């Protein structure tokens, strides 16, 4: 049954009906639509549209419907209702007869859909928060296990300075901590109820919207009805946060794919998250990580798509806005799945600490140490930088790491260099000298692990 037959004499073209209907995707808002309807029925009692007894009958029927939906959400898709709002109302009328037809008094699908979507977003944000924290925990525990594994740190994908695997894990923990705080921040703006704004101008019934908001678990009611029915900032904001976090996860994936490559060989991914080749028997491909990296694109695409849809829309509600759901659902589902998958990937990675260390020792990653050494002996940094550059060129020609050059050899470049240079060129020294806050020194990393654990407890 359509909700709006009276004005029409001709039936809708079937092709238009299919084009217009949104039930095939907005069925996911069933629980929220029912919850919103219960609250609305209570509000209608306060303005004498429903008696207390009528409201109770409606509420009972809605609660039964909620149970049915929870048991089998897919049954909704068997209906040819236009959207989830029509479906719920139709089912309610099936259950309680004409009384069900009173529920939509003073309400519009415009404030209804805005409310449903916000309720759904609030629920989904909590799922995402749990998942974002789980990945951080997995990273911190991985860091803790591998605190002593030294590896090269890169800039421009050139070996730059030695770091530890733990420090690398904690870098991604920081990114996800910011993603977490963005979600929490979004929640604040989301927590405002549009219900009772009617189609656009507000409801004609003197409903206490703050009370209504409270019944639905919102912290307040929105301030302007025109804005309330046409605001989709929450969808954009969550897709934007999803895009940023997916960008983090894609960088995480890319780093790991490289670490797992034959060329680096720093880690080996578990069989549980890799797959084989149909042709090349030796292959074990990092598919989980490649998909995480790849899915970043569709999430970003959903955000861009919705931005374009909303751009230039006149106030207030327009059917264009129905396009908000598929992209949002897909973006948040994808993000959640990638967060879960990131945990799974971290669960049993193997580190080849010997390979990591070997790579850290190559590539003259301790050159900065030699420059700092010269500075300590009174050479101005710019000059020290130049001298070390010359030493490195010569050492590369010889194929010798800095720490294996003889003192006589060093002296050709600077006569301030003495025997005390050697301890400073060791990997341990390279790490532990970086003991200012946030540095790679083992003491700092242990402290960071402790702090992150406390925050995530
Ligand atoms: N299915 C619609 C949506 O998702 C519900 C609101 C429809 N309102 C209307 N006046 N046509 O946006």
The end-to-end span amounts to 51 Å
Q: In percent, how helical is the residue content? A: 55-70%
Strand order of the largest sheet: 1-2
Kindly report the average pLDDT value.
96
Please provide the count of β strands: 6
Coarse morphology: elongated
Helix and strand run: HHHHHHEEHEHEHHEHHEHHHHHHH
**Radius of gyration computed on alpha carbons:** 30 Å
Bound molecules: arginine
Profile the largest sheet.
Answer: 2 strands, antiparallel
- Compute the number of helices: 19
**Percentage of β-strand residues:** under 5%
* Structural class by sheet pairing and helices: mainly alpha
Note poorly predicted spans. none
InterPro entries: Arg_succ_lyase_C, Argininosuccinate_lyase, Fumarase/histidase_N, Fumarate_lyase_CS, Fumarate_lyase_fam, Fumarate_lyase_N, L-Aspartase-like
Protein name: Argininosuccinate lyase
Domain Fumarate lyase N-terminal: 6-301
Main location: cytoplasm
């Amino acid at each position: 049954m359509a909700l709006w037959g009276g004005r029409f004499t001709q039936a809708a073209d079937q092709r238009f009906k299919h084009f217009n209907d949104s039930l095939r995707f907005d069925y996911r808002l069933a629980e929220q639509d029912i919850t919103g309807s219960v609250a609305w029925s209570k509000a209608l009692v306060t303005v004498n549209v429903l008696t207390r007894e009528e409201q109770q009958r409606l509420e009972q029927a809605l609660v039964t419907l909620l149970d049915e939906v929870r048991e089998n959400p897919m049954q909704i898709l068997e209906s040819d209702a236009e959207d989830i709002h029509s479906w719920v109302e139709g089912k309610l009328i099936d259950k309680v007869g004409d009384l069900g037809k009173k529920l939509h008094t003073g309400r519009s699908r415009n404030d209804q859909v805005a409310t449903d979507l916000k309720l759904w977003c609030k629920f989904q944000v909590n799922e995402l928060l749990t998942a974002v924290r789980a990945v951080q925990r997995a990273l911190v525990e991985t860091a803790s296990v591998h605190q002593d594994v030294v590896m090269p740190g890169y800039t421009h994908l050139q070996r730059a300075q030695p770091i530890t695997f733990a420090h690398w894990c904690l870098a991604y923990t920081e990114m996800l901590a910011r993603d977490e705080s963005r979600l929490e921040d979004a929640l604040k703006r989301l927590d405002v109820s549009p219900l009772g704004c009617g189609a656009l101008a507000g409801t004609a019934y003197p409903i206490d919207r703050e009370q209504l908001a409270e019944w639905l678990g919102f912290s307040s009611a929105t301030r302007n009805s025109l804005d309330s029915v046409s605001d989709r900032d929450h969808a954009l904001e969550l897709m934007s946060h999803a895009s940023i976090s997916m960008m983090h996860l894609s960088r995480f994936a890319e780093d790991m794919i490289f670490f797992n490559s034959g060329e680096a060989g720093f880690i080996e991914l578990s069989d549980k998250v890799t797959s084989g080749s149909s042709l090349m028997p030796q292959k074990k491909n990092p598919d989980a990580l490649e998909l995480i990296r790849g899915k970043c694109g569709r999430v970003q695409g959903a955000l861009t798509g919705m931005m374009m849809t909303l751009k230039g829309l006149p106030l207030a509600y327009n059917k264009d806005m129905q396009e908000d759901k598929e992209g949002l659902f897909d973006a948040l589902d994808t993000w959640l799945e990638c967060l879960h998958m990131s945990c799974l990937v971290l669960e049993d990675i193997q580190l080849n600490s010997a390979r990591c260390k070997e790579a850290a020792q190559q590539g003259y990653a301790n050159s900065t140490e030699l420059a700092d050494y010269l500075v300590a002996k009174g050479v101005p940094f710019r000059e020290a930088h130049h001298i070390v550059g010359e030493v490195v060129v010569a050492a590369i020609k010889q194929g010798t790491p800095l720490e294996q050059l003889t003192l006589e050899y060093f002296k050709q470049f600077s006569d301030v260099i003495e025997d005390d240079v050697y301890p400073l060129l060791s990997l341990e020294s390279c790490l532990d000298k970086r003991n200012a806050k946030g540095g790679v020194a083992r003491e700092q990393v242990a402290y960071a692990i402790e702090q992150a654990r406390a925050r995530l407890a």
